[in-house]
Amino acid sequence: MNLADRISNWIKEKVQEAKAEGVVIGLSGGVDSSVAACLAKRAMGEKVLGLIMPCHSSVLDEDYAWLIAKRLNIKTERVSLDSIYNDLLGILPSHKKIALANLKPRLRMLTLYYFANNLNYLVVGTGNKSEILIGYFTKYGDGGCDILPLGDLFKTEVRKLAKELKIPDEIVKRVPSAGLWERQTDEEEIGITYEDLDRIILAIESGNKESIPPQILTKVEKLIRKSAHKRSPVPVFKIVNGS
Question: What is the set of domains in the chain, with CATH numbers?
Answer without folding.
Answer: 3-176 (3.40.50.620)
